[in-house]
Design goal:
This protein is α/β, with parallel strands linked by helices. The protein is built from 8 helices and 6 strands; from the N terminus they run E-E-E-H-H-E-H-H-H-E-H-E-H-H. It has helices spanning about 35-40, 50-65, 80-90, 95-100, 115-120, 135-140, 160-170, 180-195; strands at about 1-5, 10-15, 30-35, 65-70, 125-130, 145-150. The protein binds zinc ion.
């Protein structure tokens, strides 16, 4: 485990497995995980972060070689207090993007330059990235890491995070494998029409 301190004082973590830093030529499996206290630690089902972290760790163990970057950019970079304020607005019906904007915050304040710098410091110049978020791929590429492949992270939607996942898909361009979110949507729709009849 390697800890990097960024210029803003935040400590980011690189958890490596199966390789010695600086010795790799081929592409390495990489997961960039943004800190989510509520999802990662407390198991909140409002988002899919905890499950994505667990699934990524499982895939890295299975592969036997790779790196998990745990990036300290809570709440897509707006911080924990702002995220909790945004949750309150979501209770009133706003989606995750609308809530951030209503608080005068960007919908996504994350920056992947630090992630790219950490990877390059570890000697990882080519990466196969575990993510549903195209912005992470672009962010790494922009800052000098070659992304050879994107591998989806499969999580099952639940009734509490379905709306959140749908917003990520529709407004933030996230790519979900096997259209899990849409399928669930159709089931929900047919359930409610059954209920009405
Ligand atoms: Zn989360």
């Amino acid at each position: 485990m390697f800890v990097y301190e960024a210029q803003d004082g935040k400590e980011h973590v690189a958890l490596t497995t199966g390789f010695e830093p600086g010795t790799i030529d081929e592409a390495i499996l990489v997961r960039l995980h943004s800190e989510c206290l509520t999802g990662d630690v407390f198991g909140s089902r409002r988002c899919d972060c905890g499950e994505q972290l667990e699934e990524s760790m499982r895939l890295l163990r299975e592969q036997g070689r790779g790196v998990l970057l745990y990036l300290r950019q809570e709440g897509r970079g707006i911080g924990l207090a702002n995220k909790i304020s945004a949750y309150a607005l979501q209770e009133e019906g706003l989606d995750t993007v609308q809530a951030n904007l209503a608080l005068g915050l960007p919908e996504d304040a994350r920056d992947y330059r630090v992630a790219a710098e950490i990877l390059l410091d570890l000697g990882v110049r080519r990466a196969a990235v575990l993510t549903n978020n195209p912005a992470k791929i672009e962010g790494l590429r922009r800052h000098g890491v070659e992304v050879v492949e994107r591998l989806p992270v499969q999580v099952e939607p639940n009734p509490f995070n379905l709306r959140y996942l749908r917003t990520k898909k529709e407004k933030m361009g996230h790519l979900f494998p096997s259209s899990a979110v849409m399928l669930q949507d159709e089931q929900t729709t047919s359930c409610s029409s059954n209920g009405a009849s």
